[in-house]
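Handout, section 4.2: multi-component inputs.
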Amino acid sequence: MTVRHVTRQALHILSFAVTLAVVVGLLKVLNWVPGALEPGLMARYPSIEAAASGLGIRQIYVPAYFPESLRWPPAGILAQSKPYQAVVMEFARAGDGQIVLVISQAASPNFEPDVAIRFDTISETIPLDLGGRKARLEAGACGDRSACSRIQWDEGKVRIVLTMKAPAVELVRIAQSMQH
Amino acid sequence: MDLTNLLNAYPGIHVVQAFLHSLSAAIIADRAIVAWNIRSPVIRQKFHLIAVFGPVFSYPLYQWINPDRGSMHFRLGTLFDSSRWFNLELWNVLPAGPLLVLVLGVATAIFLFQELIPILRHRPGPADPASRTVRASQGSPAASAAEGLDGEAPVLFIVEDDDPAIHSVTSRSPAIYLTTGLVRSLQPVELRAAIAHEVAHMRRSGRPLLTVAYVMRVLLFFSVATLVAFRKAAAEEEKICDDWAVKVTGRPDALAAVLEKLRHSDAYEIEDHEAGEGLRSIERISYDLMVRERIRRLADGRSTTADTGDWLKFAVTVASIAILNYYIV
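Output:
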């Protein structure tokens, strides 16, 4: 193997690496463009206040009752104002930092927050009266067989969904404390 | 169901991601051929086929590896998230979602009018149906030219037609069809080179790669990148057969002369179809460019039947595309 051969091989590798770098850069620019053209697309925010002020969302629904086992503030906040307003707050358990509660609100019934908590089976679906609002409570188990529950209702044009890795009774208490 | 819901449903996501993955794969594979200085058409063809095979399986495979790949968290950390474009209205007038559907529609129309319909209408034989076709007799110029090319002599048919043309049928009864015009216009050594090229097609027809690739290409009918990549792979197939013909005849100049004569043949005009004269002109120009490139590489002595030594580069390219496409949702 001559020096010339090694140099040529190195140039080929460099040339391919540059190709990949250009494609990655191009993709990043193309991913950035929509946000630049139309601010308000889904993004992460450091705080509830930052999301509200940054996107002009007048009301973000937060529970007044908050179990001690959960950490405050939210571990993650995702929000958008385009194509419709939506906020997703994820709360971690104090002990291990695992996401155990997700609260989402969206001005569209089609919004699916792809939450970190995934139901494996739903064993019960119960209609519920939540301070005069019609709510739907679902109870079942998550992938790791732990108890999971979900409750959803409409607050005007905003659909609120709470998903928790806990029995339904705790989730109902949190939901009741969100009534205005 | 509105467009956003359609694009967010499983088939919609599969189509969008296959489209994007084929685009990135085609660009990277194309540039990789240049960057790695790949010369063998056998290897070049495999590079082009990455954009034909990969996107069919990439989305279900990635979802199987990571079911959360479609989640908001994943999308926020990706290189490119297509959903950011769907609801965008460019200059508050032009919605980007329907634009994508338009691009997919154009690719589908090209597939229908340039590939599927012509194949369904295809007539066997290079000349018009009224032409007389006879089997080449022993000792005839064509039969003599084909002697000793590769084991058993190929079955040759002579078609009564003044236009110089040649093609092979590789189905149940493989045979080569030559026109009387071709036999008359070529020197014996050129005729041998032309037949050798067709014998190469017949030999390679036993390999299912291009047939399977065509099935994949049909599945990705909506992807412009796959269309282009498949055509480039098909062009490499011609070069592979050129190289085999040069190997057995030892006369690249003779094959180059054949291609030059066929370039000007009316029989190689693109068949009529309903897509209009403009499209036919583009096809003709594209065909002519391909033939000229083949003539050039034969004249430059670039023909090679080597197909080893570049597999590591191929593996690196496939791996790079697979990793990159994982982050394109």
